[in-house]
Amino acid sequence: MSMLRTIKPKNARVKRALDKREAQIVENEKTAIFVRGQTSSDIVRNAMKDLYALKRPEAINFSRKNDIHPFEDASSLEFFASKNDASLMVTGLHSKKRPHDLVFTRMFDGRVLDMIELGVEELRSMSDFPTPKAALSARPMMVFHSDLFDTHPTYQQLKSHLLDFYNGHHLTEIPLLNTLEHVISITAGPISDATPLPLVHFRVYTVKLLASGSRVPRLQLTEMGPSIDFSVRRVQTADEDMMKAALKRPKLAKSDVEKGLGKKRKNIETDEMGDKVGRIHLAKQDLAKMQGRKMKGLKVKKSGKEAAEGAGADESAITED
User: Where is this region: Disordered (predicted)?
Assistant: First the structure.
């Protein structure tokens, strides 16, 4: 059983830094590092390139090769994660025993939380699909098609990894359609004697809204890539104490708990896709009182009646004097 580190702050600055690392009601975007080992293949490089494109801008790509072996020695992973303030890593490797290998790693408190190793069996990269692509930093909708993702421990861990990787949230209903740009579909086949761990099919589609003759538009899905078939290989599960600490949630006020909300900021809310939306309230602007450039051509000439009234007012003022 591993013991979690406890750091006692020496001053107020250190205490503020540690408070920022504590569990938050709304967590920030998780950064992912993409790093290659000493030996890799074209398939591994292309797969990492497309996964990196889907994760941007919360992603860092290492261009150099590194002598790194995640399951044998995790010190390099922990060093890279600490130096770049990242909690997710994808390591690309290739060997005769494990060809076209990708290792997904999650970090917590500067140490490895868990890992899962996937083999790239089939790949069609994003460049192979001459179709429109989703915008940068657009949040996808993720759909998991199989009971294994809710019942099998290995596939449950894989689902958790992918949701963390693309900052997914469990939704009970479909969000607003105009907020969707692309969908990530993950499918696993049934378990059989021939396939105790069936392949995982990773597909990405763009969303286009079409007229349907009603208020609800018709959705058209167009594959944009990448299209990857993964085989599940090695798995390293999380330590029980570390996972418990990683899942810790901050305490909420009783009123917020009853409303089902966290601590809210005025005019700032979170939509169905988990994006922050702000609202600005401005008073109605009176354009008649707006000061513009003083030009002769823009002066408003008085009508004959207004001019006569003005002249009469001036004469009455002189008479009174």
Answer: 291-321
